[in-house]
Amino acid sequence: MTNAINATHDPKLKSWVTSANEAGSDFPIQNLPFGRFRPSGSKEAFRIGVAIGDQVLDVKAAGLVDTDDMNVLLAQGASERQALRTALSEGLREGSAKQAAWSKALHAQSAVELTVPCRIGDYTDFYTGIHHANAVGRQFRPDQPLMPNYKWVPIGYHGRASSIGVSGQRFKRPQGQTKAPDAAEPSFGPSKRLDYELELGFIVGRGNDLGEPIAIAEAEQHLFGVTLLNDWSARDLQAWEYQPLGPFLAKNFASTLSPWIVTMEALAPFRSKFERPAGDPQPLPYLDSPANRESGALEITLEVWLQTAKMREAGEPAVRLTRGNTAEAAYWTPGQLVAHHTVNGCNLQPGDLFGSGTLSGPTQDQSGSLLELTVGGKQPITLPNGEKRTFLEDGDTLSMRGYCERAGAVRIGLGEVSGTVLAAG
Ligand code: CA
Question: What is the pLDDT of residue 2?
Fold first, then answer.
């Protein structure tokens, strides 16, 4: 079971890497997320690391794996992944005999460069945020906000992997075709309605053979873990191009991932029941299982922060725009996404990425996009320095943070994904 609680989750565990024991650390010994790093300024190949406190452990140098290729690690089964987690937990805990040897395999996070945590072959973006689907649907189609398939089918589309970058990504404002509702013809130019989308990214571990669906009971065995994902979106391009085949250039100019994959095992203490509101249809049998009902949902707190160029120049910190929780926002569980994606025989491969879709809660202050927060640009927000925003402006740095807290468990974090909008050109 990926969501079994075991000795690696023991809240009493402390690490000999003392920064991991500080209150509020995203990376205590109960977390152990995976990423790819190299010493800052070097041209070395990226290698596999595990975040612990403010350090990164080189897992190959520590003798735990014999590869530098994250995708090879992803292809292993859940049992190998769990054994690796146990070995990491035992070696990093206080009093471990490994301390002397593994100290030599540590790098300060401040002295390393991180990259996208694996090679992403295919990227599928889902649409599990029902409050987002409702709010956006009301703006695009007031007569029918939620399409009739929404409560039956986990809606998704195939996105683009080549433009996915890691936190810190800087990208030019996209240009393209837009058409105002009252204009006779479209015009061409920089997007004026550039937005973010607050999502989780699910990284596929072991794949499946073409023609061999993954049953929901095994679905989570095929997920390695979770990252934060900002699916930048040009709303004006989107409104003009999205029918009949869905998003295209409005979405594929940049997408940004956080550098650390928090494993499904690390998230075990932060699961909750999957329940449908009264009156909603129950999932079809291939999307239903006792385990999914009992603990299919994830409880992750997500925050969105903004720092404008003016704030940065004045030395003012980022300001929080919203805060919400994934369990309230998502209509489908990660296991259901795997089962649905493969039910027709589609083959997943190690390193494939699923986006959850924008995870907005039921209230305005839990919005996962500016489209919702400013009601389609009609209600600007005012920042502490007096600046106003409807959509993102050049120089804006948008950051997302995620963490899990629950009584009886040690807080773990997903870290941060941030990105900066540059002028078009
Ligand atoms: Ca999206």
Answer: 67
